[in-house]
Specification:
Layout (H helix, E strand, L loop, with lengths): L17 E4 L1 E2 L18 E2 L2 H14 L5 E5 L8 H14 L5 E6 L9 H9 L2 E9 L3 H6 L6 H13 L3 E8 L3 H19 L3 E6 L9 H5 L9 H14 L6 E3 L10 E3 H16 L14
Parallel strand pairs: 1-4, 4-5, 5-6, 6-7, 7-8, 8-9
Antiparallel strand pairs: 2-3, 9-10
Helix pairs in contact: 1-2, 2-3, 6-8, 8-9
Length: 291
């Protein structure tokens, strides 16, 4: 059987994937807005445990086509460990078409493009990376551990290896004071990285001590109202110019679901936001929002 150390998280697009925890928790686990893995002490799952789960899947779920490697940043593992996992997956799951995982920008510091190319050849096709913001002040205040420029440079490695990236950013993270700067600099970050996919979440905060405002270091920080979130999203999309990015805001945290190819659908996306700002579009009610 497959044993999950909960809570367990996955991207919306991995709803039909087999989830396997190659690691437990998050190796960074310091982002001020995130409590997803605070109940876990980071560890690497023993290879014998993980391989036994893969063998069980091969015997009981032989037609699995997609696998998602959890937890928070499975790419913290060494290239040799990841290669062994990918090779085992291919050996046990004959119908496997793609493997994806969460990753943090720092996961690429000690990995070369050539090493990442080996992972691509072994079946790793896409990585989900939480960039959160392209604004250095916001990144510093949330303790992301990297600057925007470092993030851009580190993300080039998997892209040069042929691995697709899905970059996630968070609306509302900077509060009212940093909203426009957060939106514009995040647009610049996404333009510079030019990932295959860019996804926006809307900030939702679980109860915590100290409060996020205290952790953020700004007593005047507050959550943005829905109209302010929409305006921030509009600012970001309007400022983006890179071709080939598919933009989505289909996560349950968002007030407005958007999806489109930026180079083709940018005006339509902005039009949807404008309709919602005029009160003509239907927003997701609070009771249906969630992480």
């Amino acid at each position: 059987m497959i044993h999950y150390d909960e809570p367990l998280y996955r991207p919306p697009s991995e709803a039909r994937s087999l989830i396997l925890q190659a690691t437990i928790g998050c190796s960074h686990n310091r982002c001020a807005f995130c409590v997803n893995y605070r109940s876990k002490r980071f560890r690497v799952k023993k290879q014998s445990e993980l391989f036994a789960e893969i063998e069980w899947a091969g015997a009981n779920l032989p037609h699995v086509r997609r696998v998602f490697l959890a937890d928070g940043d499975a790419l913290v593992l060494s290239v040799s460990k990841l290669e062994r996992i990918l090779n085992k997956l291919r050996a046990e799951l004959p119908d496997l078409e793609r493997v994806t995982a969460y990753a943090g920008p720092k996961n690429f510091r000690n990995k070369t493009t050539l090493e990442l190319s080996r992972l691509k050849q072994a079946g790793l096709q896409m990585l989900y990376i939480g960039a959160e913001s392209g604004d250095d002040e916001v990144l510093c205040r949330i303790d992301k551990g990297v600057t925007a420029q470092e993030m851009i440079e580190l993300c080039r490695k998997p892209q040069e290896a042929g691995i697709d990236l899905s970059i996630t950013v968070i609306l509302g993270l900077g509060g009212p004071r940093l909203s426009k700067k957060h939106a514009r600099n995040t647009a610049a970050l996404l333009d510079a990285i030019s990932p295959r996919y860019a996804s926006a979440l809307t900030l939702m905060l679980a109860p915590r001590s100290p409060s996020f405002a205290q952790a953020f270091g700004d007593p005047a920080w507050r959550m943005l109202e829905p109209a302010e979130i929409l305006a921030e999203c509009r600012e970001m999309i309007a400022a983006m110019h890179a071709d080939g990015i598919t933009f989505r805001s289909n996560h349950a945290s968002n007030y407005l679901a958007l999806a489109g190819e930026l180079s083709r659908d940018k005006d339509a996306l902005l039009g949807q936001i404008d309709e919602a700002l005029r009160g003509e579009g239907r927003l997701r009610p609070e009771f249906l929002r969630g992480l």
